[in-house]
Write a structure and sequence with these properties.
By secondary structure, the chain is of the alpha+beta class. It has helices at about 5-10, 20-35, 100-115, 140-150, 195-220, 265-280, 305-315, 330-335, 360-380; strands at about 40-45, 50-55, 65-70, 90, 95, 125-130, 155-160, 165-170, 175-180, 185, 230-240, 245, 250-260, 290-295, 300, 320-325, 340-345, 360. The strands form five sheets. A six-stranded mixed sheet has the order 1-2-6-3-7-17, with helices on both faces. The longest helix is centred in the middle third of the chain and has 22 residues, at about 195-220. It starts with a helix and ends in a 10-residue tail after the last helix.
């Protein structure tokens, strides 16, 4: 099968993060099996979601891992002019949910695995497909656990998120959090005698904004990012049942996207101190703010001088490097497993998560070319890419 044929099948699976991806994983495993490639499937507790890990080439040797996620963001509420889960080609563009983020790369990587199976590789090629990346890199963690106990780990990893095939060496980490604010309900006519949890929530949201302002003024800087500092963001606030009832509970969902030089936990400790001050100022026995973690993933910070960077540049013909605003599973592979990682994949994230998402045919073909170069290098001889980051 050609990459385009594989992509057409992948897009037809509506693998929104809230739904199952097992059908897609089973289809990929069956396709690989037809070419003599065995897959390890790591299912979640429900059995409806799974990761896939497959290897082509000699066993017992560290190789190159191609990593991609199979889940996509929802299409509900978006004004699509083309079918979201049917690949449509028009004027050099391939439309469909996930074409860019990131089933285009997954299709190319699967095609590369099949091509590699026909050659006597000196260095193995690994394929890692995961679920639930879009909701916090959650699904890949069971695959990371498996690799953590494996006798041999991959030597390097290429995460194929869309970078227009530029070599990205870094992204920020993310800490997603919830502040649960507790008060005491009462009749709105007697509001001063109650404790309005929404007022606590609004005060805490203001504390988040104040911390952001402090970071902008005094925090670390990294000019390789479009937003060169650690960002804090309040994304959701809930509370209250009726206008004439003082709410006794409210929540604030917020996040910290931190530079490598900033400690997200230290920022969180400062925000917890702000929460304590807000509660103390409320001077009410029912006032309380409890902050809990929803999910977290580490940032990626591969040195531009690392051997993996020059190696992947040699596959793409790139000269420089970039850093990306979005997060990936790359930080988990790098920090938990010590696998040097870069992000490099076809398409632009400017097209991701939108109605009529697309990837260009030219970008998909360029990705195929990059991975063809990779397979050729793996067949030439044992790959010597140091684990050292610099």
């Amino acid at each position: 099968m050609k990459t385009l044929d594989i992509l057409q099948r992948l897009i037809a699976f509506p693998t929104i993060s809230a739904d199952e991806n097992r059908s897609l994983i089973d289809w990929v495993a069956a396709l690989l099996a037809r070419h003599g490639i065995e897959s390890t499937i790591i299912a979640d507790k429900s059995g409806k979601k799974a990761n896939l890990y497959a290897t082509v080439g000699p066993s017992g040797r560290a190789g190159v891992m191609l990593s991609g996620h199979t889940d996509v963001v929802p299409v509900a509420g978006q004004d699509w002019q083309r079918p979201a889960f049917q690949l449509t080609q028009d004027q050099g563009r391939l439309y469909g949910r996930g074409t860019c983020d990131m089933k285009g790369f997954c299709a190319s990587a699967i095609h590369a695995m099949i091509a590699a199976s026909t050659r006597p590789l000196e260095t193995p090629l690994h394929l890692a497909l995961s679920h639930d990346e879009e909701i916090g890199c959650i699904g890949v963690r069971s695959l990371v656990d498996m690799l953590d106990t494996a006798p041999v780990r991959p030597a390097i990893c290429i995460v194929g998120e869309p970078t227009s095939l530029a070599v990205a060496t870094g992204h920020k980490g993310k800490l997603a959090l919830r502040a649960a604010c507790f008060g005491q309900e009462g009749h709105s006519a007697l509001a001063p005698l109650a404790m309005n949890a929404l007022h606590l929530a609004m005060d805490f949201a203001q504390a988040v904004r104040a911390k952001q302002a402090d970071i902008v003024e005094n925090g670390c800087r990294d000019g390789d990012y479009d937003v060169p500092y650690t960002t804090l963001h309040v994304g959701r606030m809930t509370g209250g049942d009726a206008l004439n009832i003082v709410p006794n509970h409210a929540t604030v969902d917020f996040e910290i996207r931190n530079l490598a030089d900033d400690d997200a936990q230290e920022i969180l400790r400062d925000l917890k101190k702000s929460a304590d001050r807000i509660v103390a100022a409320a001077n009410h026995p029912s006032a309380r703010i409890e902050i809990s973690e929803i999910f977290a993933y580490p940032g990626l910070g591969t040195a531009p001088s690392a051997e993996i960077v020059s190696f992947v540049k040699s596959l793409t013909g790139a000269n420089g490097t970039i850093k990306v605003a979005f997060g990936t599973e790359g930080g988990l592979f790098d920090q938990r497993l010590g696998i040097p990682t870069v992000v490099c994949g076809p398409g632009s994230m400017a097209q991701g998560h939108k109605p009529d998402e697309y990837i260009t045919v030219a970008q998909l073909e360029a990705c195929d070319s990059m991975l063809q170069n990779l397979v050729a290098r793996l067949a030439d001889g044992p790959l010597d890419v140091a684990r050292a980051r610099d």
